[in-house]
Design brief:
Chain A is an alpha/beta fold. Chain A has three domains: about 170 residues, Aconitase, domain 3 (2-Layer Sandwich), CATH 3.30.499; about 100 residues, no CATH class; about 120 residues, 2-Layer Sandwich (Aconitase, domain 3), CATH 3.30.499.10. Chain A is about 40% helix and about 15% strand. A five-stranded parallel sheet of chain A has the order 12-11-10-13-14, with helices on both faces. Chain A has a four-stranded parallel sheet with strand order 8-7-6-9. In chain A, strands 3-2-4 form a three-stranded parallel sheet, covered by helices on one side. In chain A, helix 1 crosses helix 2. Chain A is globular, with a radius of gyration of 21 Å. The mean pLDDT of chain A is about 95. By secondary structure, chain B is of the alpha/beta class. In chain B, helix 1 packs parallel to helix 2. Classes of the chains: A alpha/beta, B alpha/beta.
Chain lengths: ~400, ~140
């Protein structure tokens, strides 16, 4: 692997121990995967940001780098935290978690991170553009930014993102290369009018595609151009949950797939798979671990809700209130919440008894004290992880039914 | 007793041995592995309830979340990590946890992939296996 004189010097420790450690991780990574050289990256999204995600070991790693004087060289946003920084007292969060999350926050901010605390940085005034090389963590964000925006990142593991931010570099391999971005397996939608698809339908589609494509680049044909950014977000989160997917193409929708030929880089698909009503129903049914919608809580905002989705939720909640012993929690970020507040939406949601929660994720949230055994969600990612992480029973429903199931 | 050796691509150097834990199903460490105990918790996984601590963990590939590396790093801190990892194809996401563990806790987990024969067909869970990886070569050795 070729290194410039400056890169070689960084590796030898001439820019300090933190840069040396970061370089040695990146060089090792590059060598393992046959990278020919390093490339400059222009933006980083750090997934190694929450205490429940990275644990004590991850906290010790961040603190070690910050103590050694590491500084982020490019704009670097942070993924979710394990707490809502302003409201954690309401949710009975363990003191240890609060203290350790604050330590992680302090280490990142000391290194120059932007305190975005969201899994959807691409919906928060992101400056990332088509064709840029970036280094992002968090699987939904990676799939979205590669596929929908057309910036280039590998699926950065936790800590690779940090090493990239410290050096401004990444080894050049995988999705940084034109050849690796070509489609491989074709998914044809059969007799489905996706103009009527809900976010939950797009999530089910994504989950199916990810499961079949596994680690190949999937190309979808037959998705309506009416698909919204938020639906592409739901698809991105699902496709990267069931498979090792960092990039997908949707014909005539995503920027590297103006047509089928471009999506496959002029080559033929290695396999063609048909997705119809039967597959859609089968995937949707597979998420539910219980019969009948009797949830204790409905969870919306996985990934984080945009201001448009908050507006939609407020509309669906009109003239409704939380039912007795039920909860509705909507997860979002500060940037969407602030706009929702200015628009008067936040107040309307709060009036119904629903909670809008920032900075964090239900899956990393202390829920034991709330006696929540059963959840309703329209997110494939939530439905996939909730049984393993929280032993929750799941009802997979459209957001309208999610809201109706806990309100009256 | 016959020694059988399967050549592999070395990804992270080291030598380790232990009882094999073998699955033909990909695994997601985040939500699928509890680093405090080493127990596999992934929904519907054929190894659910089994423990990876000290094993030579043989699985086809990782999947899903980019938090995989952090889970592996924490499992090293907690002493519940596998002794070695054998994949058909290793994701970078997994190797990083092992690289940083070496830097932070001075604990080496050799990782190899692309074996010349499918180890999932050849190795059974519980069989004693050694993994040996250097910069240039790697192999899995088993006694049969």
């Amino acid at each position: 692997m070729f290194l410039t004189t400056e890169e070689e010097q960084s590796l030898q420790g001439e820019q300090g121990e933190a840069v040396q450690l970061a370089m040695s991780v990146l060089v090792k990574l590059g060598k393992m995967y046959g990278a020919d050289r390093m490339i400059r990256i222009e933006n980083v999204h750090v997934d190694a940001s929450s205490y429940y995600g990275i644990s004590d070991a991850g906290m010790e790693f961040c603190e070690k780098l910050a103590e050694e004087g590491a500084a982020y060289k490019v704009p670097t946003t942070l993924c979710i935290a394990s707490i809502d920084f302003e409201r954690h007292a309401e949710f009975d969060v363990a003191q240890e978690c609060v203290e350790k999350q604050l330590r992680i926050s302090e280490a990142h901010l000391k290194m120059g991170a932007i305190p975005s605390w969201t899994c959807t940085p691409y919906q928060c005034d992101s400056s990332v553009r088509f064709g840029q090389n970036i280094a992002w963590g968090e699987s939904n964000a990676i799939a979205f930014v590669n596929s929908v925006i057309g910036a280039r990142t590998i699926r950065c593991a936790d800590f690779v993102d940090i090493c990239a931010a410290i050096t401004g570099l990444m080894p050049r391999f995988d999705l940084y290369l034109d050849d690796e971005r070509k489609g491989s397996v074709l998914f044809k939608l059969d007799n489905l009018d996706t103009r009527y698809f809900t976010s939950a339908d797009y999530a089910a589609l994504g989950y199916y595609v990810g499961g079949v494509a596994d680690s190949r680049v999937p190309v979808l044909q037959g998705v309506s151009k009416t698909v919204s950014v938020d639906q592409l977000k739901a698809f991105s989160a699902a496709v990267s949950t069931s498979g090792s997917i960092g990039l997908f193409h949707m014909c005539e929708i995503t920027p590297e797939a103006k047509n089928l030929d471009e999506a496959f880089g002029g080559e033929k698909p290695s396999e063609t798979v048909v997705f119809g009503q039967d597959e859609l129903s089968e995937v949707r049914n597979s998420f539910s671990t219980q019969d009948g919608p009797e949830p204790d809580i409905a969870i919306l905002g996985c990934p984080h809700y945009s201001v448009e989705e908050l507006r939609e939720a407020a509309h669906l909640l009109k003239n409704r209130r939380l039912a007795a012993n039920k909860q509705l929690w909507i997860f979002t970020n500060r940037c969407a919440q602030e706009r929702a507040e200015q628009m008067g939406i936040l107040e309307k949601i709060n009036e119904t008894g629903a909670k809008v929660i920032c900075d964090t994720c239900f899956l990393l949230f202390p829920t034991a004290a709330w006696e929540l055994g059963s959840i309703a969600t329209d997110s494939a990612k939530m439905a996939h992880y909730a049984p393993g992480l929280g032993k929750f029973r799941v009802s997979f429903l459209d957001k309208v039914q999610c809201i109706e199931s806990v309100t009256k | 007793m016959k020694l059988s050796r399967i050549l592999c691509n070395p990804l992270l150097s080291g030598v380790a041995s232990g009882p094999a834990l073998v699955t033909s199903q990909p695994i997601c460490f985040w939500g699928g592995l509890d680093p405090k105990t080493g127990t596999i918790t992934e929904r519907d996984h054929e190894l659910k309830g089994q423990n990876v601590a000290g094993t030579v963990f043989v699985f086809p590939t990782g999947k899903g979340s980019s938090t995989t590396s952090a889970i592996l790093l924490e499992s090293v801190r907690c002493g519940t990590a596998p002794a070695a990892i054998v994949n058909l194809k290793t994701e970078p996401i997994l190797v990083i946890g092992a690289i940083i563990a070496e830097k932070l806790y001075d604990r080496v987990i050799p990782i190899v992939d692309t074996p010349e024969r499918d180890p999932i067909k050849v190795i059974k869970s519980g069989e004693w296996v050694e993994v040996n990886a250097s910069e240039t070569q790697g192999w899995i050795q088993l006694r049969k």
